[in-house]
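Risk mitigation, structural track. In case the binding assays with flavin-adenine dinucleotide fail to produce interpretable data, a predicted complex structure has been prepared as a fallback.
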Amino acid sequence: MDLTEPQRAVRDAVLAELEGSFGGELITEDSTGYDQARTLWNAVIDKRPALIARCTNTEDVVAVVNAARVHDALLSVRGGGHGVVGKALADDGVTLDLGLMNGVTVDTERKLVHVQGGCRLGDVDAATSEHGLAVPAGIVADTGVGGLTLGGGAGWLSRKYGLTSDNVVSFEAVTASGDVLEVSATEHPDLIWALHGGGGNFGVVTRFTFRAYAFGPDVRFGAALYTADTAAVALRAYADIYPTLPYEVGWHVTMKQSMPPLPFVPDELVGKRLVMIFCLWAADVDDAEGTETIKRLVGTGDPVVNTVAAIPFGLGLQRFLDAEYSDGLRNYTNEAHLTELSDDVIEALLDFWEVELAGPESSIGGEPTIYGLGGAVQDVPEAATAFSHSESVWWVNYACHWKDARDDERNMAAIRSSCRDLTPWLGAGIYVNMLNVDELDRVVEAYGGPETYARLGVVKAKYDPGNLFRVNHNIVPSTA
Ligand code: FAD
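Fallback model:
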C-alpha cells in the first residue's frame, strides 16, 4: 500500500492517540494478520485500510471515533463484513472493527436480548435457542447483526413478527462527537426513528436490545424441489395461494443452478438445476393447522421431492444455507421489489435460471430468490420508522457467486440484464442492504425517496454534522 504523506500522517496520529489506552488490536499493513483482517465476505472487494482498530468495548469505540474525528481520518465501521459493496472498509482509511464485540445476554424474564454491535446472527440464535426464544433476523448465520438490522432485516420470522429493525427496543450508540447515547422511544426519539432503517449513518451501534419471542427450539419446516418441467406451474400455484396464507407462514423460493447437498436432497439430485421452495410455520411445532398448511404447500404442483419435518430452528434451519454463502467467493447481487408474481414475471425469472453463467467449472451458484413478505412487515405504519416500502410483498434477490475473477464481467452483465427484464413489474424502492456498487444513484430511493431522505438528513445534521460516518450508503447532513 502506498499511503501518501498526508495519509500516513493521519494514520500515525490516530495510532499515537490510541496506543496505550486502546484495549483491542491495532492492525496496519505491517502486522501479521493484516490480510485476514481486511478480508470481507465478497471477494470482489479488495480494499486496503491504513489502520484496522479491533474494538473490545464501548470505550474503545469512543476512542477510535474521537481520534478519527480529530485527525480527519476516513472512518469506516465493520460489523459482520457481509455488505456486498464492502463499505465495512475504506482504502487508506481507518476501520473501526466490531468483530470482537460479539457478546449476547438474554433476559428471559422480560424476553429481551442485548446484542453487542459486532455479533453475527448465529451468535444471537445460539444464545436465544438455549432459552426457547428467537429474535427475527435473516437466513445466513454469518451475516452481521449490525448492518442487517440498521438497514431493516428480513428473514424466516418476518411475516409473523416484522423486520429485525421493528424488534429493536433500544440502542447504545456512539455518535460522531464521541458521546454514548442510550436511544429508545423516549430518549432521542428522532434518532431511534432514523436507526430503524437509516443504516450506519448516525453513529456506531455498540448494543442492540431486541424483543424476543418464545419459539422452538424445533420448528415445522417443509421443502419441495421442482424440475424445469414442473417449476412454472408450481410457482403460479404458489402465487395464487400466497395472499391467503396466515402470518405464521414463512416462505421463499430459490432457483438453484446447482442443488447443494442439503439434508433432504437425495444424492442423485445434488448438483441438478432445481427450483427449491422452503416454508415454515412460525408458531408451535405441533400445531395441527401449521403441519397441515406446510404439508399442503409442499404438495403444490408436482415436486420431485417434498418433505415436512420438525427441525431445530436456531441451530438447524438458520444454518442450512451457511456453507453456500461462505466467505471468499466472488459475489454480485441485485434486488428488486416486484408488484406481482404474475405468469410473465415467473417466465422472466425462469429464463434467467436457464442461463449458464460464465465458467461452468467455477460457477457454483446463480440463483434468483423470491422472498414472500407482507404480514407483520406491512402492519408497521410507513412513517413510524425510516425503513421504506414495507408494503412490498415480493422481493427478488439475485444472489450469485462464483470463484474465478475472469467470470465477473459476464456474470454481472447477465444478472443486470435479467433484473432489467423485470422493469415492467418493478415496484417502488430497493432494499438498502442489497444496493450494489453500480446502483449508487438509487440511494435516495433506497431510503424511501426525497421526503424520507430529507428527514434523515436533518437527523444526520444533528448527530453527525461533519459526516464522519460517510463510508456507507450515505445520508448527507441537511438543514432542510
Ligand atoms: P458490514 O459490511 O460489516 O456493514 C454493512 C454496513 O453497515 C456498513 O456501512 C457498516 O458501516 C454498517 N454497520 C455494520 N454494523 C454496524 C454497527 N454496529 N454500527 C453502525 N454501523 C454498522 N439481509 C436480510 O435482510 N435478510 C437476510 O436473510 C440476508 N441474508 C444475507 C445473506 C448473505 C450471505 C449476505 C452476504 C447478506 C445477507 N443480507 C440479508 C444482507 C445484509 O443485511 C447486508 O449485507 C448487511 O449489510 C450485512 O451487515 P454486516 O454487518 O454483516 O455488514
